[in-house]
Amino acid sequence: MLFVPAGAAPYGVPMQHPAGHSCPESAGSADCAHRTELERLATLDAATIARALDDRRALYPLISGAVDQYLDLDDRADAAFAAGNSDEAMYLHQEASAWRATVTVLKQIEQHGHGAAAPMTGIA
Fold first, then answer.
1. Are 99 and 43 in contact (CB under 8 A)?
2. What global pTM score does this model have?
3. Distance between CA 98 and CA 122 in Å, rounded?
4. 3-class SS shares of the chain: helix, strand, coil, % to 5
5. Residues in the chain with pLDDT < 50?
6. CA distance to 56, 74, 113, per residue, from 96 (Å)
7. Helix (H/G/I), strand (E/B), else coil: 15
8. Which entry of 25, 27, 60, 98 is 20 to 30 Å from 75 by CA?
9. What are phi and psi of 83, to 5 degrees?
């Protein structure tokens, strides 16, 4: 699993389905909406997002990894705050929030399958 640093998403670029078809944010498909939300969160790379959308068996390890990420980031944020580094603590809590939102979208994909429901946007 490859993780992408925050801010690395291709903002303003039309999102692509694995088959190469454009997936604009205005598209009604839940797959498009899930893909767009995961790309906006910038926690997973494009190949991992495609795997999450194409193979439901990939979801459990992705969800588990994302939970581990946000728990680790929250612990590191708490340690930074205790050490008096509030800027680092706020940054780490923000990163943890993005990972929690990633878990939410991945669970929506798992629960509803493909095309059943659009994700909540702006949940980070």
1. yes
2. 0.69
3. 10
4. 60, 5, 35
5. 1-2, 4-22, 24-28, 115-119
6. 24, 6, 25
7. strand
8. 60
9. -85, 0
